[in-house]
Specification:
Mean pLDDT: 83
Oligomer: single chain
Radius of gyration: 29 Å
Shape: flat
Number of strands: 5
Number of domains: 2
């Protein structure tokens, strides 16, 4: 990668086509590399070559949008030429509800621009009322079903929150450790843990360990977490760590903010090491959503009320615990 950067710096004043040919890169790949070099401080955002590539991408995007609009217009014209009513035409085009409302407005504007009188426009609207009503009825039914599904999800989240917060509160009152909060920092492609931390509901550290991955930690993860290859060079690998985690988590519920991703990392580690974890995974984020009665996922930093997230496992565990304690207070448990 460094040799590619050095070669790029030598030829970056050449025409873009020559640069792509010499480096054997596509324009999209060079755009990605330029972004990375800008993040690393090797290239400026206003560099002419990066500006040119960015303008090319924007032009391609605009061209794609224009093509889609032309195809849509062509389909519309074909349906109108078939002497279909405006309602039937809209239905055949499978417009979304939002787009359908926009379509109605555009159609009314078209009639107005044709200098038809209000009486004539009203007559045309009445003629098509039946078709419009059928379409609107379908949309209303679709909206009703979506609303019911949303309410079911919210209700399930509220029950989920009540159940787990009651268990966490019991841990706090009795001094037990049925719940553990964990976080994993990992490299990606392939996904490998480089740090695992666990605390109990009292804030006590149960486990906090850097892990040596099979693959190198790339510069992005180093920048994000502050964990370097030198820091993990003499640390145990996942095969030595998983048996310890198995003993610590036996029969407990493990909560993390993004449980799906973290649980998958654990499952992958279990497969690689032949470890069978006897624990249950839960989602602290879903608990918080249930307390707020929200259907939208909430970032950890947002929920904690911080501008930045540390991206170190132990610090994130403590953030999650603080949020859960505030949720318990909000629920009055």
């Amino acid at each position: 990668m460094k040799s590619q950067l050095a070669k790029f710096k030598k030829i970056k004043d050449k025409p873009l086509s020559d640069i792509l040919h010499i480096l054997h890169l596509s324009e999209e790949r060079l755009y990605t590399l330029c972004h990375m070099w800008i993040d690393q401080g090797h290239l400026k955002k206003d560099d002419p070559i990066f500006t040119e590539i960015r303008e090319h991408r924007q032009a391609r995007r605009q061209h794609s949008i224009q093509n889609r609009r032309e195809q849509e217009l062509k389909a519309y014209q074909e349906l109108r030429d078939a002497d279909l009513t405006i309602g039937e035409t809209a239905k055949r085009l499978r417009f979304s509800r939002l787009k359908m409302d926009h379509f109605f407005k555009k159609w009314y504007q078209t009639l107005s621009q044709q200098e038809q009188s209000d009486t004539e426009i009203a007559h045309i609207l009445r003629v098509n009322t039946t078709h419009f009503e059928n379409i609107r009825t379908e949309y209303e039914e679709e909206a009703r079903l979506k609303l019911e599904a949303r309410e079911r999800r919210l209700s399930a989240n509220r029950l989920y929150a009540d159940t787990h917060l009651a268990g966490i509160q019991e841990d706090l009152q009795r001094g037990t450790q049925r719940y553990l909060i964990f976080d994993i920092e990992a490299i990606q492609c392939p996904d490998e843990p480089i740090e695992i931390s666990m605390i109990d509901c009292h804030g006590n550290t149960v486990f906090n360990q850097l892990i040596k991955p099979e693959n190198k930690i790339n510069w992005r993860i180093e920048k994000l977490t502050g964990i370097t290859n030198d820091m993990v060079a003499n640390q145990p690998n996942i095969h030595r760590v998983m048996p310890i985690i198995k003993e610590l988590t036996q029969g407990r519920t493990l909560l993390s903010w993004g449980s799906d991703y973290d649980a998958v990392l654990f499952e992958t580690a279990c497969e690689e090491t032949g470890t069978d974890l006897k624990c249950t995974f839960g989602c602290a984020q879903r608990i918080h959503m249930g307390v707020l009665n929200s259907k939208n996922q909430i970032a950890l930093g947002t929920a904690a009320g911080t501008d930045t997230q540390s991206h170190r496992a132990l610090d994130d565990c403590l953030l999650v615990l603080d949020i859960l304690k505030r949720d318990i207070a909000l629920k009055g448990l």
